[in-house]
Amino acid sequence: MHSSQLRLIFNRMVEYQSKVLDRTFGALADPTRRRILAQLAKGRECVTDLARPHAMSLAAVSKHVIVLEKAGLVRRRRRGRVHSLALEAKPMKEAQAWINRYREFWEGNLDRFEEYLNKLQKEKNNNDDNK
After folding, report:
1. pLDDT for residue 45 is more than 70
2. pTM, whole model, 2 decimals?
3. Which CATH architecture has domain 1-88?
């Protein structure tokens, strides 16, 4: 495999991950959708039951559910006229992995910054003692 082919594959992977993350974070950006996910974390529910605690129409809740489905955060099952929904963990796991990579980077940088500040403080204390 040539390096140009590998770059193309890598770029497609990054583009795919970016789209998944964009949809996941976009879906999570809305408080109603986060509350729906919290409800589903307790177990499978039908759309009507999901709509009950929200001060909005069934159609409005359905639009939120569609966004969650497109993000892969919710899976729908139809039994006759009843649509039941369940939480899907994979997109959340991918988002968490992305966050963890940046958390590790920033924690490492902050640790090095703290070491640098401690070194400066020791040097300052040594200079103050020598006066």
Report:
1. yes
2. 0.68
3. Orthogonal Bundle (1.10)
